[in-house]
From TrEMBL:
SUPFAM superfamilies, alphabetized: Glycoside hydrolase/deacetylase (SSF88713)
Pfam family, one: Polysacc_deac_1
Protein name: Polysaccharide deacetylase
Keywords: Signal
Subcellular location: Secreted
Coiled-coil ranges (or none): none
Annotated NodB homology domain residues: 87-335
CDD domains, A to Z: CE4_NodB_like_5s_6s (cd10918)
Matching Gene3D superfamilies: Glycoside hydrolase/deacetylase
Domain of life, source organism: Bacteria
Amino acid sequence: MLKRALKMAAGALYLRSGSGKQALADRAVILMLHRVVESDEAASLPHRNELCVGQHSFDRLLGWLKRHFDICELEPLLTTPSSSDRPRLALTFDDGWHDNATLAFPILQRHQVPASIFLSTDFIGTRQGFWWESIGETLWGSFGLAAIDSLLPRLAASGKPVPELLRSMPQNADRSRLVMRYLASLKDLPAPTLQALADSCPLSDPPQAMSWAQVTELEQSGLIRFGAHGASHALLDCLSPSQLQQDISRSLAAIASHCEQPLPIYCYPNGNYSASVTACIQQHALPFALSTRAGIYSAQSSMPYGLPRIGISQAVAAAPALLGWRIQQAGRPHH
Ligand SMILES: [Zn+2]
């Protein structure tokens, strides 16, 4: 705890100090978020912490960010020099969660803060679930014991048996940590296997992904713009050349047909990319792509097809001074 308190103090000082402001003068911070959920407490569980932020923490985070940064739209932040004496920051959301429209958007609107949302387009307007959410929440117990018992043999058959003790564990932080570690162990399974496992889980209500009507409504507000985050959310560097072409083309075509002003910026699912992935993005005449690598954006030194971001977990959203510390670390010259 002492370590955390010191990080928070250092982070707050950094953003207030001349050195912090100067270090960030010709640079910018791109934040990466996923879900905004109703309860801060639910978001803070280990298996959700990295990808979920509670709505109250999100509200407070925006207030804190507005005091320290100029919150800008992503595209102008990448294409035009800063005219402000405050560091610039842009918000990005990955995947296209239903809660981005129902919970995050009203808070963004209240603060009049713009954001970019990157959609995994096959999921938009469908009941299909993202594998880590469907499998993770089923194992956590969100759908009851019968759902767990029907999923366990399928997971064992895919070569990834779930540790025996999970079934009898109470819904506490230990169980949540076990779910988190187990989900991480699934990442190397083929995308179709993971999707089939997710499809065998109970459907959530409301659906995980937003609808195209919600996409239209958010874009028409003038506050939100959309880009592509893969079509199937498959790890792009693991696809064959023809699968890669198809996934990227399909995602861009869906965005182009549903959005007035698609972002000329790609967002790699899970941050995975390779030389052939960036070549494919370039062929589609997109000048930028976002990675998940932690870092601060610099027009001079950032690679346009591997732009760094800073991930926002519930732990960071609940204590935004920690973000100051993370920005200071990521902004150091050796990074
Ligand atoms: Zn994603």
